[in-house]
Write a structure and sequence with these properties.
Elements lengths: L1 H27 L4 H34 L6 H22 L2 H23 L5
Helix pairs in contact: 1-2, 2-3, 3-4
């Protein structure tokens, strides 16, 4: 079950990452503009729910794997996802573009941390 939760989290993270790519493709693609636009709209609707689901799955996965809260690459990865969530909440409530930019920067950081967690999980 721990493995299923972990890989489910990886899939959800990649689905979340496609939101930005789809939005860019919808704006720049001449050939498939309509298709990418529809996918981008769908992605925009489900993005927040998938993010919250990822936080829940990550917490459950970590709790089942370690049994307690300890400093680990998974804890750092989960914290990065939590920071992204908090940044977008700040962006939505304060309407300050810097929080959206920071959210996008943390997306890159989160993917790097995912690689660290997958390939060197016991480094911390």
């Amino acid at each position: 079950m721990i493995t299923v939760l972990g890989w489910s989290g990886v899939v959800l993270l990649f689905v979340l990452g496609t939101h930005y790519v789809l939005r860019k493709l919808a704006k720049s693609s001449l050939t498939y503009h309509g298709t990418f636009k529809q996918l981008s709209k769908l992605s925009k609707k489900i993005h927040p729910f998938i993010g919250i689901l990822l936080l829940a799955i990550g917490l459950l996965h970590g709790n089942m794997a370690l049994g307690r809260l300890v400093l680990h690459t998974g804890t750092i990865l989960w914290s990065s996802v939590l920071v992204m969530f908090l940044l977008i909440v700040l962006f939505k409530s304060l309407k300050k573009g810097i929080f959206l930019k920071m959210h996008r920067v943390f997306a890159v950081v989160t993917f790097l941390l995912l690689g660290l967690h997958l390939f060197a999980r016991n480094i911390v």
